[in-house]
Specification:
Elements: H1 2-6, H2 8-19, H3 22-36, H4 41-72, H5 86-97, H6 107-116, H7 121-130, H8 136-146, H9 148-174, H10 209-243, H11 246-253, H12 258-271, H13 278-287, H14 292-305, H15 307-316, H16 319-342
Length: about 350
Amino acid sequence: MAELTQNPRFVAKGALDLIKTPWALIVAILVAVAIFDPGNWVEVITFAGKALAHTGQYILFAVLLLSYLKATGAEVMVARAFEGRETRMIFLAALFGGLAPFCSCEVIPFIAGLLALGAPLSAVMAFWLSSPLIDPPTLLITAGALGWPFAIGKAVSAVALGLFGGFAVRLLMRQGAFAQPLREYKPVGCCGCGPKLDEKPVWKFWQDPDRRVRFRAEFLQNGLFLLKWLALAYVLEALLVSYVPADLIAGVVGGDGVLPIVVAALVGMPAYLNSYVAPPLLAGLMEQGMSAGAAMSFMVAGAVSSIPAMAAVWSLVKPRVFATYLGLGIGGAIISGILFQLI
């Protein structure tokens, strides 16, 4: 092992992997500020540190909750939403989609299993659209960065988008569309492995040594993941507040019109990072003049149709289903933004 760590190639690969991490980017940003604008360095550090400390309580609770759900296997309970009448399945799938701790890519193996087992595409689409938008940890992170009204609005948008997509697909299926939605499935990894459909929840996970190990692993993995990305997000937010003119943001995505909401959806589609990083960045943009409707549109569009998510969806379903998923996601994001702006 000692010989391996002393191998130049091994050391170079380790150094390269470290450079690619958010920590390296944070250090690079702070060094750049210290060099080019030393008078503002302390302000940037203070802003990011206070924001991260404020969200820390939400991060801790979110990580504990997510680790518990993963250790118990509770996320697979959503499979029960796909039993019974189709209308009931759509409603339950949209609701459970907002509770399951899946990102837009991690949900792909779960969706593949449901479709292979014969679950109707309408109910699967309802779950598929709502699941990436909100889950308990994301709800807490969003509330910490943007406030509870925004977090609740996003949760409502998630369920509403799922219902909208599910019933739209049901209508199209009655006209003969989507007879065979699946293509040959080849996983496209971006978030990790999805759950197993045959796993049963074990609520007292601490009685099982393997599940205790899983809880610890999930806690450390998710805790470090959230910490590094939120630290980067708050540093970027500090840069936005310090260096990006408020008039510029307000001119592009400010105001009460429909155009800023549409622009935010189109920009959010490829630019979105993840549901944990987006809230702090949007908080900074809203301070600079971004409208609440545009922020909601950006967040919904990005979660549903980010580039990693689209790649994962493309690997699973045929082009018509993919186009429908994309259209429903972007259209639903724009509608969500408009309605949230009006409210």
